[in-house]
Amino acid sequence: MVNPIKLSLLTAFLFIILLRIPVSAFQYTVNDENGWVVPNVGDVLVYNHWASRNRFQIGDSIRFIYDRDSVLEVSEEEYEECYSLKPFNFSNSGDSVFVLKRPGSYFFISGVSTHCKKGQKIIVKVLSTHINHAPLESPSDSPSSFPTNRTDATPASSPATTKPKSNDAVAINICFALSPLCAVVVSFFFF
């Protein structure tokens, strides 16, 4: 049996370690300062070009800012058709935020079908693995395709850190996964 004082100290130590784990989520404003508007003639891919310059991860969110329009999250088929009777999500507030909760592709269109047919639609691809949030420069911006510094996304609120469970095995496994220093401290308490 573990000494209650040692267990309390270990719990406090694990809590401090968990607080230090970097958790980051970003909120991207679609099309930056231009917002969610009907693209200029001949620029029907403006939104997908914008999306391709960013690396979206689970937990990030995308924000649509617009006037007299709406945003629908739809299936790929509905995206291609620019029409949906039953979108996954719908918003017409003028300032809509969608949280990216899973890896894969998200399809968004304007709720005004003529706007969508003029190119007011976007595919957002969410990565399944963690990488640096830096957007990529477009080929026209630079000959390099290496990530640049964060400029267009703002940190979103970080999810709350959960307290470690009191189960000794879970605490040890979490600790060993986090850092060698943590493993040394846990070893001191349990062995």
From TrEMBL:
Keywords: Disulfide bond, Glycoprotein, GPI-anchor, Lipoprotein, Membrane, Signal, Transmembrane, Transmembrane helix. Residues 139-152 have a biased composition (Polar residues). Residues 153-164 have a biased composition (Low complexity). SUPFAM superfamilies: Cupredoxins. Pfam families: Cu_bind_like. Residues 135-165 are annotated as: Disordered. The chain crosses the membrane at residues 170-190. Residues 26-128 form the Phytocyanin domain. GO terms for molecular function: electron transfer activity. It is found in: Endomembrane system; Membrane. GO terms for cellular component: endomembrane system; plasma membrane; side of membrane. It is a lipid-anchor; GPI-anchor. Residues 1-25 form the signal peptide. Belongs to the early nodulin-like (ENODL) family. This is Phytocyanin domain-containing protein. It comes from Zostera marina.
